[in-house]
Amino acid sequence: MAPAGRLLLLLLLLLVPMRAVPSAVLHKGIGEPCEEHKQCQSNCCTTSTLSPQKYCASLTVFRKCLSWQKPTGYQCSDHKECRSSCCVTNSRSPLRFCTPRTIFFQCLSWRKPNQDYCSEHSECHSQCCLSLIETAPARCRPRTGFLAQCLPL
């Protein structure tokens, strides 16, 4: 009897016309792996970690699809990679890292301390690169005077 029941079920499946499956059923839900936006119900397929794997994600309040961005301290090569939108050097090393912005929303890179050799003002934390003697190489110097100007002592 069991084989006859299976045969009858198979005949019914072949004879009954298939109904169209709604497209929403074919879309993936939040957190499911995806490759393109159109695969997701939210129409947002993006990375959520350092991994290159993409997942369906929810849209922001402003209906934007934002990808995961690196937090402070992660190595970066462009401002767009960081949550703070600030990718700068933080030491003598040429490597760049995601860095928080200042209280005035400035993105400042590391600058040389006083007494370090320099070739221009922008290299120094004090914004002052001077040679005290014509034959000596320039060094970062503290600003001096009442108006804190870049003047030799």
TrEMBL record:
Coiled coil: none annotated. One of its GO terms (biological process) is lipid catabolic process. It holds the Pfam family Colipase-like. GO terms for cellular component: extracellular region. This is Leucine rich colipase like 1. The keyword Hydrolase does not apply. Keywords: Signal. One of its GO terms (molecular function) is enzyme activator activity. The lineage of its organism: Eukaryota, Metazoa, Chordata, Craniata, Vertebrata. Residues 1-20 form the signal peptide.
